[in-house]
Design goal:
Elements (H helix, E strand, L loop, with lengths): L13 E3 L5 E3 L7 E6 L6 H12 L1 H6 L2 E7 L3 H10 L5 E4 L4 H5 L3 E6 L2 E6 L2 E5 L5 E5 L7 H10 L2
Parallel strand pairs: 3-4, 4-5
Antiparallel strand pairs: 1-2, 3-8, 6-7, 8-9
Length: 155
Amino acid sequence: MAEVKEGNKAPVFSLPDGDENKVSLKDFSGKNLVLYFYPKDMTSGCTQEACDFRDAQPEFNKLNAEVIGISKDPVKQHRKFADKYELPFKLLSDENSNVCEKYGVWQEKSMYGKKYMGIVRTTFVINGDGRIVKIFPKVKVRGHVDEVQKVLSEI
């Protein structure tokens, strides 16, 4: 597998959304894609991040960009999360971590001295040709959407 880094082709994926429809990277050909990986629906940081992306949706539309969120949560959980917060974009379910592993975001984490595997909050900006333009590793939620919009405005 090719290394996931800026300038390389984005790894292909095909995952179910909250309505159990398959969504693939190729569906976004010709559009910019903001692919963000997050740990868990309904948690404070993940809810804030999703709502920030939701609130900026008109700006993303102007930048010819789609937003997609990916976590390990099951499809039904994504549907509840999207409905509760009126999210206008798709959330994809990667329950077996295959896509998380392809993108290198399934990593060892540590909390209170205990080590475990989990999703490291990461955003990939992918251009219409399927190339990774920018990777934001270990995202801090506050101000993140502005950083993403700045990158998109320069594509």
